[in-house]
Amino acid sequence: MGSPSIFDADWLQVRAQLQPDEWDAAALLFGLPVGAAQRVRDEPRGPESKDDRKPPPPPPPPPEPAAEATAPLLWRVTEQRDDTAAATQPPWWSSTPGASPGDYLAPADWLRPRVRPLIPLARWHSFLKQALARPVAGRELDAAALVDRLARRQALRRVPMRTALRWPRQLHLVSATPDRLGPLAHDLARLDRATGQLLGTRVQRWPVNDAVDAGAALAALRGQACLVLADAGLAGGTPGEQAAWAHAMPKPVGTAQPPVLVLPAALRLGDRRAAAAWIDRCQAALLGDQQALRRLDRRRLQAAAGVAGEPAAPQREAAPHAAAVRALRASLLGNSWVDVDLLRALRRCLAAAGLAADLATEVEVWNDAAVGSDDLACTLLPEA
Hints:
By secondary structure, this protein is of the alpha/beta class. It has helices spanning about 10-15, 25-30, 35-40, 50-55, 110, 120-130, 145-150, 185-200, 210-220, 240-250, 270-275, 300, 315-330, 340-350, 360-365; strands at about 135-140, 160-165, 170-175, 205, 225-230, 260-265, 285, 295, 340, 370-375, 375-380.
């Protein structure tokens, strides 16, 4: 039999119209061998190419089995057994020690000294009342003044009433505490918190970075009640910073209340001539160590060293303060964490021993090149 006269595609169309038992008869009719109906593919095959004659590529290797994730081993105590026969303590444990813990352990009070603040809170409240509160006529009759006027036969044009001190409705607190102040920055921050606890919502805080920002804040608040907590550049500030504070203090306007400036008593580190430019524009007060707040005026500005201003004999006064700085710096040896309270306790011990150690000594040691310091503590550097 010659080649069939029908292609696979035609045969598939014919086969689709017949029953399976009629496929062989139809295959003979079209010249196809018997059983061709079963060998013909369901899908037509295109022309054979050279790629079809190539052997099929080998199958890819089977993937490696994935490593099973091992769960972490968690141990728990299910039973406790005591071996009474074994020795549970070394022989030296039951021996009597030669010294008691009290012989080599310091009391707890010695580990962190209880340092008194520069000024008690009651004294600070009294200062604020005198500097910021204003007398106003009260509603209570002043009987003593009334009797005194009647005894003097003076005309009573107005019934005398008792006066009372009234806080301002709004107190603007401007604080500038640069990093170079060291322990003194913590003292000013303590006064800031004490003022807020006393006056509550009456206090509006204006934290500033330098004299320029302080001047902008004071210029905007001119004529209002202002409390400034800063050193005015006199506690180790640069000459440019000291001169900037002269422009920061606003000039008084009429009967308006001038700002109240509280600065630490470390003025021997600055130039008193820079403070003379603004001393009459504000109510300045010196914050000393365990002393009442003293009004800083031109007379006290020119006082001796350690209180305010420059010393009369710098060469003579420099040696005692330098000796105090060296002694306080040497006391840091062996302690890797000297906070502000411990540094003040050491400085007060040196002052009690007769050295000229004041608040400026703490600032000098805090900023010393041989001392490493941050916001909380200081220590003596290893290469010192």
